[in-house]
UniProtKB/TrEMBL annotation:
Family: Belongs to the FAD-binding oxidoreductase/transferase type 4 family.
Keyword presence, Flavoprotein: yes
Pfam family, one: FAD_binding_4
InterPro entries, alphabetized: FAD-bd_oxidored_4_C (IPR004113), FAD-bd_PCMH (IPR016166), FAD-bd_PCMH-like_sf (IPR036318), FAD-bd_PCMH_sub1 (IPR016167), FAD-bd_PCMH_sub2 (IPR016169), FAD-linked_Oxase-like_C (IPR016164), FAD-oxidored/transferase_4 (IPR051264), Oxid_FAD_bind_N (IPR006094)
UniProt-listed Gene3D superfamilies: 3.30.465.10, 3.30.70.2190, 3.30.70.2740, Uridine Diphospho-n-acetylenolpyruvylglucosamine Reductase, domain 2 (3.30.43.10), Vanillyl-alcohol Oxidase, Chain A, domain 4 (1.10.45.10)
Keyword tags: FAD, Flavoprotein
Name by which UniProt lists this protein: FAD-binding oxidoreductase
Domain FAD-binding PCMH-type: 35-216
Amino acid sequence: MTELITRLQSIVGAAHVLIATEDQAPYLRDWPGKYQGAAMAVVRPASTEEVAAVMAACVEARVPVVPQGGHTSLSGGATPDATGRAIVLSLSRMNRIRAVDPIGQTIVVDAGVVLAKVQDAARDAGLFFPLSLGSEGTCTVGGNLAANAGGVAVLRYGVMRELTLGLEVVLPDGRIWDGLRALRKDNTGYALRDLFIGSEGTLGIITGAVLKLFPQPTARATAFVAVADAAAALKLLRLSRAHCGDRLTAFEFLTSATLEMILRQMPDTRSPFAGLPDAAVLIELSDIGDENALTARLETALAEAMAEGLASDAVVAQDGTQAKAFWRVRESVSEALVREGKALKHDIAVPVAEIADFVAVMDAAVGAALPGIRPMVFGHLGDGNLHYNLMRPLDISEAQFYEHGPQITRLVHDEITRRRGSISAEHGIGQLRPAEMPLCKPPLELELMLQLKRTLDPHGLMNPGKLLPGA
């Protein structure tokens, strides 16, 4: 493949075709450390035209391409396999803010722009981009789009699909689809934009996007609330919506075990409560207007919740510093889990009204299947997305724990399927769960997805082994 390497060097420059093992290393291992791959080369184009030329060269040579953004995938979606046949195509050099339209409230960006940079550019224009993730300092817009990222503000603003107006995509044959339209209304056929969002790089390479911006909130009110369980949290959600309407921006749930783990593993976090509650909810309101009035609205809702027995304690942040400390607890979950040890992770969604019953049923089922297993449950309660993570019993080894993994995960996924939920709410399928897709997708749905894949990528070169079984 020396000829291909030479051609790629002529397209992007020799310095941006990484061949040496030590140069490639950061691109070949996923962030959680679960997957280690290999690559013929890591290629770093600087423009859409260079991406198109690289893709055309790879399709001519029949070499697979693995698109990669900030490399923060939790499902191995941006990590190549171990064969070393693929090119890793990193978009990290494509990091321009192309345009900001304060009147139309849009921003046009390269796919390699880090999410925090988009947030900053919106803020500089007096506007707001609401996607917020724990990895926002490293994840990129292209990756967020490929996985249809959600985050903590979905309750008010929606997932990445709902935050996107237009896309620019390099197709598997090297052609460029220019769909960078900043239109709120466009009823002229199939929504191709939605086809590529959530496709995990299996249908093409997203190189640019038009994103929606919103008025910058001038007031926030944040509270940590102690509740008895998920059922009480759902009742608190209903009450909060009745009092606060669409000001309710985030409603994050943590079980007692999850909160205790965070506080133990992350020394810079502090509990807002005198003791450890049975469960906790982190609530945030945002609005345009007076912060005192917004805080008073939240306090009124919490007072009613306390009177009705839905909450046993509530602490309202008195300033921005305290609010950040509250959020630091929630944002530390992923790192705390890594420090705690290996886990069986399930990024799931069920209808919101069924969350409490799902947790109760699953805790009993996994506990019966493997006594001593430790559920660590947290997530975006308001939109039905829970992270149902299971830590090993302390009296068995990691190897013994993983022997039970397939059985435990099957229990979880069977219950999700029974409730018409999703086995991947926001992390994507990647190379973690393609084999499980037939268990949760009807045959016709899988057939249609495979037909789309084969139509756009007939040689199967785009991110092989990800998302779809056998693709």
